[in-house]
Write a structure and sequence with these properties.
Layout: H1 3-34, H2 39-44, E1 52-63, E2 66-67, H3 76-90, E3 92-96, H4 104-108, E4 109-115, H5 118-121, E5 122-123, H6 126-132, H7 136-144, E6 148-149, E7 151-152, E8 159-164, E9 166-167, E10 172-173, E11 181-185, H8 191-194, H9 196-204, H10 230-237, E12 242-243
Parallel strand pairs: 1-3, 1-4, 1-8, 5-9, 8-11
Antiparallel strand pairs: 1-2, 1-12, 6-7, 10-11
Helix pairs in contact: 3-9
Length: about 250
Amino acid sequence: MSFWSKLKSVVKGVVRAVKAVVRAVIRIAVIVLTSWTKALDLVFGWVGWPPKRLKVHIAVLTGPSGPLITDLNTLRPAIDVLKQTLKDRCNVKVLPYSSGNKNEIDNWVQVVTEVAPTAALKVRCDFGALWDEGGEAGEFFARHTAGWVGIPISLAFPITVFIVEEVNDKLGCAVPVLTDYCTVNAGAIFDKGNSVMAHECAHRCNLWHVSQKVNLLNPDREKPPFWLHWWQRNLLRASRHVTYLF
């Protein structure tokens, strides 16, 4: 590799890292500035009233061989578990981010026709995912995250679920606080009673793993119906993704 190619690569890496930091700062600012609106839910969210909303967008990535999922209707069971669990446990109505399409599933799911880079198709989790947010994967996800174009363009703050080829050693992953998306392994999305998507969206809404087998946040949960503790309902309803009006 020539000197100029190396320099170009370094500059591109620095630019990606700076963009990732800016995205993180904006999200933290949103959390701080809207924290006063979440106070009641942090204390009384377990009451589950009044009803709230969560908007979700599912993005199926395309690899060198084509889309990772071709029949979008196969995602309906996972969507149904997400909708039913949050409605029953938190009085949160899960809605598609898009609207107006002839087929309802198209309001929920989009195939990203651009061939994704390897870093976005085969993702890491935990600190690896946090580090990759400043790289090629994070840049790709940022361009395809619903409700954002560098800055928030939707007060709904939707969650984007990226269907990827592989999540290293996991079924899915959600980077805490600093992103508005989660990743789900295409081959495992139907595991755990079709609850992988719901589990990762709950992570995206401030929740962490717990030990009770029937809990949505148990890594070894088996099948619906799933439960949430009262304090989990508080945290989920206080998430920036869960709103009253949008």
